[in-house]
Amino acid sequence: MAEHVALGEVVGVDLEPTMIERAIAIAGERHAEKVRFQVAEILELPFPDNSFDAVFSSAMLEHLADPVQALREIFRVLKPEGLIGVASTDWVEPLISPADDAVTGFFELIERGFNHNGGSLNRGRHLRVMLEQAGFKITEFSAAYSNAGTSERVRTTVEGYVQWIESWPLFDQAVELGWLDRGSLEGIVAGLKQWSQRPDAFLSTTNCRGVGQKQ
Q1: Cα gap 150→202, rounded to integer Å
Q2: Where does residue 210 rank: exposed (0-12), middle (13-18), buried (19+ CB within 10 A)?
Q3: CATH architecture for the domain at 41-214
């Protein structure tokens, strides 16, 4: 984004210090100018009212118990006539072909984990309503499918899912809570890998995108 806003400053925020460290490293590798990063809580941003011309958020509202409150906080720090752009997943009905229990089980398990922690990966269709509730005037709204339509894309996508299972505390938490045992979780991993090797495998998920303006 900094590359597209040559005359302005870009500020990146995240709750996790490790993500900020990673962002700083990437910015250094790309020699990005007029960009800075800081740890911040989206529900209590450390910026004055009317600070920014535009705010962009992707895959953040999914983690929150009160996404509308987060959008209201963004509304606060935007200048009058400022713009917000938001992308949010909606995985309630992924397109999976051929049908597979392991792939379906992965989507059900990750949504259950998000629900347990107050979030949801299935809110995208409600993004327009949430933006309006936060006070924004909607200027654009659409939904699009991601398309893992080639064998290589399918394998890459599933590899990402497997990495999540192996690294996210959410999945260890699922075992600790008794939703499934370790063997069943390993079975989902094995099933995902096996399904991704099928030459006819296809997977697509929905992403909703909205642009709103502060009036």
Answers
A1: 7
A2: buried
A3: 3-Layer(aba) Sandwich (3.40)
Q: DSSP character for 124? A: G
Write the single-letter amino acid at 133.
Answer: Q
Tokens of 13: 């925020």
Using CA atoms, how far apart are residues 195 and 72, in angstroms rounded to an integer?
42
Question: Both tokens of residue 188?
Answer: 């989902």
pLDDT tens digit sequence for 42-69: 999 999 999 999 999 999 999 999 999 9
In the beta sheet, which residues pair with residue 57? 86
CA–CA gap between residue 193 and residue 158 (Å, rounded): 7
CB atoms within 10 A of CB 99: 8
For 172-176, the CB contacts below 8 A with 24+ separation are: 173/113, 173/116, 174/109, 174/112, 174/113
CB 35 within 8 Å of CB 2: yes
**Do residues 188 and 105 make contact, with C-beta atoms less than 8 angstroms apart?**
yes
Tokens 């030459």 found at: 199
- pTM of structure: 0.91
Residue type, 120: S
β-strand 52-58 against 78-97: which pairing, if any? parallel
Strand, coil or helix: 35:
strand
Q: What are the extents of the domains in the chain? A: 41-214
**Helix (H/G/I), strand (E/B), else coil: 84:** strand
Geometric angle at alpha carbon 90, from 158 and 142, rounded to 5°: 115
